[in-house]
Each structure stands twice: as C-alpha cells, then as structure tokens.
Amino acid sequence: MTLPDNLKYTKDHEWIRVEGNVATIGITDFAQGELGDIVFVEIETLGETLGAGDVFGTVEAVKTVSDLFMPLSGEIIEVNEELEGQPEIINSDPYEKGWMIKVNIDNVKEIENLLSVEAYKEVTGQ
Q1: Among 48, 41, 40, 39, which residue's Cα sits nearest to residue 70?
Q2: Which domains does the chain have, with CATH numbers?
Q3: CA 62, 65, 71, 75: dihedral to nearest 10 degrees?
Q4: Contacts 24+ apart (CB under 8 A), 118-123
Q5: DSSP string spanning 27-50?
Q6: pLDDT per residue as tens digits for the range 57-108
Q7: What pTM was estimated for this model as a whole?
C-alpha cells in the first residue's frame, strides 16, 4: 500500500493534496484495494458548495457502491473527466491520474482535522 507523506487523509479513506486555497481529493490506495476493480464513478456536484462530511459522489466497484465524502468544506471547481471513460485509473494510479475533484477550500482551519500519514496508518492497521 502506497501512502505519500505530502498528503492528508480521512478515516473514510480519502486523500487530500492542499495547494494554496485549492484541495485535490481522491481515494487512497488502501480504499481502491478494498473496493476491487472500479467500474464507475459518479460525481454530479460540480459547482456546488458542500460541507465537510457531505457526500460528493459515489464510486462503484464490481462488488459494491461506496459514497465519497468531502474532507473539507468548499466549492467543487473541477471534476476529473477522465474517470468517466476510464474509472479503472483509480485502481492503477489513485494519487495522480486517479484524482476525483478539486475544491476551493472555505475554511483552511479544517485542514487541522485531517489525518497525517501516521494517523491514517493506524486507521488501516498498517
């Protein structure tokens, strides 16, 4: 399982890369491994402002459908359109090409609530 140290994480298995006031969000290598082959991603919240913990979309794997949760409050300003035709990118490259959304962060203080690599490893038992 790969866990880049320059990212933040949630107990719901999302990763967050913060650059200025924009957060790029996806699901972790652990999450994609648990889900198995991802066959569909649905994100219909582009342009919406959602709170931390709100559902921003779903990811469908062969065995299950899982909700995707906002790790931070903000407006969804971009959705990774490549996932529409190639959702399996999440399985092969969850941290780069497999990103899901970009968000204009409403409250940068919420970053303090996110998990470090070490704390996320405890969540996953790694």
Answers
A1: 48
A2: 9-108 (2.40.50.100)
A3: 100
A4: 119/9, 120/3, 120/9, 120/11, 120/28, 121/3, 123/9, 123/11
A5: E-HHHHHHH-SEEEEE---TT-EE
A6: 999 999 899 999 999 999 999 999 999 999 999 999 999 999 999 999 999 9
A7: 0.95
